[in-house]
Amino acid sequence: MPNPKPRYLTHNGLTLSLQEWARKVGISPETIRSRLDHQGYDVARALTTPVANKFAKRGSPPVPPPRPCPKMLKHTKSGQACARWKTGKKDNIRYFGPWGSKEAAGAYRAFQAEWVGAGSHLVNPSGGCMVGDLVAEYMGHVGRYYVKDGKPTSEQHSQRAAMRVLAALYKLLPVTEFKPRQLKACQQAMIEKGWARDTINRNVWRIRRCFSWGVAEELVPASIADALDHVPHLQAGRTTAPDPDPVMSVPASRVVAVLPHLDPNPERAAVLAAMIQFHELSGCRPGELCAMTADAIDTSETEWAYRVRDKNTHRQRKRKPLTRWFGPQSQEVLRPFLSNPGPGGRIWCFPPRYPNSEKSRRVPVSSARYSELIREACRAAGIEPWTPHQLRHNRATNVQRIYESDEAAAAAIGDTVEVTRAVYADPSEAVARRIARATG
């Protein structure tokens, strides 16, 4: 229900309504209101902080619903039954046989089944398909496939970036003329954009995936997709594409440095400080931390168990349930928050902005907001920014140092030994130095 009276805000000696400030600064009124009521911003910060790029409205329209199957028409010149439709800007036609015959009726029923199965992107077999048409149809598939809990996943943005390069270079090229040379040109275009080597390799894979999908939908000859598989990935040290520095654990001094700068509100700062301390002790992923609910934690044993729910339903059938175990130190941090969970049973929630208001409510801390607040605290403390995910590296590294075992570190963070050794645990020289001292 809208507010009965406009809300006025004063900034830099100017007093305007919230709606007028929204038009003046180019920030939506909902964002300004949320910043003031729920996120603890003061008026100056709410009106001057730019909206994060990841939350900006995208220019691409939503994926339209599937088109209805074209009707069967009578072709005047030939007297045959047919159907006409467009794919992009190309006209397509399919003939079914003499008008009014059983042959035409059966062929049209088969065409209807093809149309439903192919998602309304059938093309005329003799008409060919342009790369731009293939990209448009593939992105429709991406919009339907890469969805989690009814929301688009980050893979949609990655697919869009790869397809943007492909369409910019070869939108008007027939798919039958797209060869390994053209895929290498896309690869080179990504290098010139300054993208990292791993990012380029993943995006080249996405372009291959687009053409492989086109084979299954009879938009691309199989020989084209097979030929693209022979384009090699960029190798480290053999390309000008940069390799980012490996992610390491966060030094304890940098973790301590952000604590006084987490939030001006002491209650909100206390929640964030507890999250950081618990995160480093548990070694869970930021998404798992922020999604924790009180009912998912079993406190009946000496070590508390947290049953992690994998939102990827297609992986739930393949993976064993993941359980995080919390010892005495983690329990001490977590216990005060279990007695008063927030909306949906969420553990980590900010207190309401206005406790005495009828509309006051606690706000669950999302993983994106968690990362943003730590980044802002690093900036306020004047130190190099670090991310919450690096606290997972801290946990793996600490356990590996104590037990001198990659298996122990992998068990502590709930990942494979290979990934833990290659990604999470910092390199250790302790064992090598002790061997050298004793035998060298």
From TrEMBL:
Gene3D superfamilies: 1.10.150.130, Intergrase catalytic core. Residues 54-76 are annotated as: Disordered. Residues 243-437 form the Tyr recombinase domain. The keyword Phosphoprotein does not apply. One of its GO terms (biological process) is DNA integration. Transmembrane segments: none annotated. The keyword Nucleotide-binding does not apply. PROSITE patterns: TYR_RECOMBINASE (PS51898). GO terms for molecular function: DNA binding. Keywords: DNA recombination, DNA-binding. It comes from the Bacteria. Pfam families: Phage_integrase. InterPro entries: DNA_brk_join_enz, Integrase-like_cat_sf, Integrase_catalytic, Integrase_recombinase_N, Tyrosine_recombinase_XerCD. Belongs to the 'phage' integrase family. This is Tyr recombinase domain-containing protein. It comes from Gemmata massiliana.
